[in-house]
Amino acid sequence: MKKQIALTVNGVKRELLVNPQDLLLNVLREQLGLTGAKYGCGIGECGSCTVLLDGEPILSCMTLAVAVNGSEVTTIEGLLGSDGSLHPIQESFLEHGAVQCGFCTPGMILMAKNLLDKNPHPSEEEIREHIRGNLCRCTGYTQIVQAIKEVSLTRKA
Ligand code: FES
Ligand code: FES
After folding, report:
1. Which of 39, 65, 137, 147 is least crowded, fewest Cβ atoms below 10 Å from its Cβ?
2. Count of the separate structural domains present in the chain
3. Does residue 74 sit in the same domain as residue 93?
4. In terms of domains, do 121 and 102 share one?
């Protein structure tokens, strides 16, 4: 039997009817049309489904929607400015060629946002450690780390 849940998604309150077994990833993608979070492995190993839950990264392929009732969810779509402008982290990824096929990119950028929100000037080692669970099948890690580092160098603390 479906259950009603309430989520704040990218700043907008949403009331949703979900099955008890519905994954947050599928609810975001299929009910809300937010296709930024990707279905990669489906078993918690690649990070392509990463979203922020109350500011902290979670794997939405491993998260039941009913379990996060009442929470605040941020997807990559939520990083855009009100005028549609890209977030500085998105800009930096583009400038550094850190986007190849793009499949890992939403998860990587949300991990970067989470890191920079907590630690505005991380070391390269801290960046690598933070994105350790996010796999890039195009192996563009050097550019990804450079892109995150650049934001940390140019943003005000
Ligand atoms: S799709 Fe969720 S960790 Fe791979
Ligand atoms: S850019 Fe292709 S998976 Fe990372």
Report:
1. 137
2. 2
3. no
4. yes
| Alpha carbon distance 48, 37 (integer Å) | 6
Mutate to test the pocket of ligand 2, among 96, 137, 145 (most ligand atoms within 8 A of CB): 137
Rounded Cα distance between 152 and 71, Å, is 28
The model carries a pTM of 0.96
Residue 141 belongs to what domain range?
88-154
Do residues 102 and 54 both lie within one domain?
no
Verify that 55 and 117 share a domain, yes or no: no
Residues 145 and 97 placed together within one structural domain of the fold: yes
Q: Which of 29, 48, 63 to mutate to test the pocket of ligand 1 (most atoms within 8 A of CB)?
A: 48
CA 113 to ligand 2 centroid distance, Å: 18
pLDDT band at 155 (very low <50, low <70, confident <90, very high): confident
Question: Which residue type, as a one-letter code, is found at position 43?
Answer: I
Compute, in angstroms, the gap from residue 22 CA to the centroid of ligand 1. Answer: 15
Interval between CA 107 and ligand 1 midpoint (Å): 10
Among protein residues, the one whose CA lies closest to atom 3 of ligand 1: 44
What CATH number is associated with residue 132? 1.10.150.120
For the beta sheet containing 12-18, the strands, ordered from the edge strand earlier in sequence to the opposite edge, are 12-18, 3-9, 72-74, 50-53, 56-59
Q: What is the mean pLDDT of residues 44-72?
A: 98
